[in-house]
Amino acid sequence: MNPSAASGDLARDAFAVLLPAFATLDCHDAALPLMERGCTSVLIGETRAEYLARRMSAERLAAETEEVFSGAIAHLREASPDLIVAVDQEPIGIRRLQGLAPFLAEDEEIYSLDDATIERRALEMASVARRLGVTMFLAPILDVVTGRNDWLSGRALDASPEEIGRIGAAYISGVQAAGIAAVAKHFPGFSELARDPAMYDVALDTPRETLIANALPFRTAISAGVAGIMPGPAPVAALDPDDAACTSRAVIDLLRGEFAFGGLVVTDDLDAPATLRDRPLAEVAVTALAAGADLLLVVGGDHLHEVVDSILEAVADGRLPEDRLRDAARRVRAFAAAPRAVSRNGKY
Predict the structure, then answer these.
(1) What residue segments make up the domains of the chain, in order of their start?
(2) C-alpha separations of 82 from 42, 58, 299, 342 in Å
(3) Which helix (H) or strand (E) holds 249?
(4) What residues does the Glycoside hydrolase family 3 N-terminal domain cover (predicted)?
(5) 8-337: which CATH topology?
(6) Is the model's pLDDT at 338 over the cut of 80?
(7) CA 64 from chain center: how many Å?
(8) How far apart are CA 19 and CA 271, in angstroms?
(9) CB-side exposure of 171: number of CA atoms within 13 Å?
(10) pLDDT band at 91 (very low <50, low <70, confident <90, very high)
(11) Is CB count within 10 Å lower at the N or C end of the chain?
């Protein structure tokens, strides 16, 4: 099936559930064909080197002024006025807007801040981001790390579940008061991983009772009205040993059911080895949608047309219910049209 020849509404729905990630602002030529076909989201990301360093490069800091950044986003919005523009802007760790927006805190300082100060600083940071054209932060990180975890080293808060929840809730309140959706990650929490799931196929082996106890910060975030939650990129063996959390029906059902989350479910990077597990990206995308995910984070590029083909084929042959695809697209568009309209339980 050719996306350009597929039934118009359904094909646009398949494009609408994609969140293509680009490592640079110079992504208009790659993003525009996707937006013309219905894509309404983009992640302005970072390079692999910046991800590993937990900071933006000197070259990027020198080149990306407020005018350059906001101009690039405005150029994208010419094709899609309601575009969701996401960035990684973590309380500590990866802060894509380094050099453009103030930090919430220097790393160790954050633990000494009271709720009002965190909320105020988050509001100030997010207000700058809104002026730049950003509408979504893929943050805060709420994982409770208790063992080796190179993936989250320098990114996760080193505190009790209660303290992580407190800091996260204040961050969420401030960010969302500025009109930016916060997406808490990485549900249900990855306490330790032997390797980085962005580079290796690895799974979390934490017992279920410990897992649920460590997920307390997500309950706090949901109570604070967080707009979105991102399940993690690796399998959680106690819940589903086969599929990564962000593609697992068991994990997303837990989030929707026991945790009563009604907001947007955003996948982690579907291109990660621990998520792919030696399967084609298109197959994993269908699995994520069928499991209940709404917005699929994927590396941007022409290959996404093939992913859309596979989504449409899965609908045609019954592997993916049409109503599930349409509901995911509806939820994404509802957020895109009114990012500030977040109810207390995160529903759109």
Answers:
(1) 8-337
(2) 11, 31, 21, 16
(3) helix 249-256
(4) 79-333
(5) TIM Barrel (3.20.20)
(6) no
(7) 23
(8) 12
(9) 30
(10) very high
(11) N
For tokens 């509806």, the residue is: 330
Do 147 and 96 meet the contact criterion of CB atoms below 8 Å apart? no
Radius of gyration of the chain (CA): 19
Q: How confident is the model at residue 7 (pLDDT cuts 50, 70, 90)?
A: low
Closest by CA to 142, choosing from 177, 72, 91, 82, is 91
Q: Read off the tokens for 153.
A: 């080293």
Model pLDDT, residue 348:
45
Angle at which helices 115-132 and 161-177 pack, to 10 degrees?
40
Is residue 107 very low, low, confident or very high in pLDDT (cuts 50, 70, 90)? Answer: confident
Structure tokens at 51: 């991800």
Q: Is 71 helix (H, G, I), strand (E, B) or coil?
A: helix
Pairing between β-strand 240-244 and β-strand 235-236 as defined by DSSP bridges: antiparallel
For residue 158, which amino acid is it?
D
Residues in the chain: 348
The answer to whether the bond into 91 is cis (omega within 30° of 0) is no
C-alpha to C-alpha distance for 263 and 279, rounded to whole angstroms: 28
Cα–Cα distance measured from residue 185 to residue 218, given in angstroms and rounded to the nearest whole number: 8
pLDDT digits (tens, 9 = 90+) for 133-179: 999 999 999 999 999 999 999 999 999 999 999 999 999 999 999 99
**Alpha-carbon distance 292 to 304, whole Å?**
20
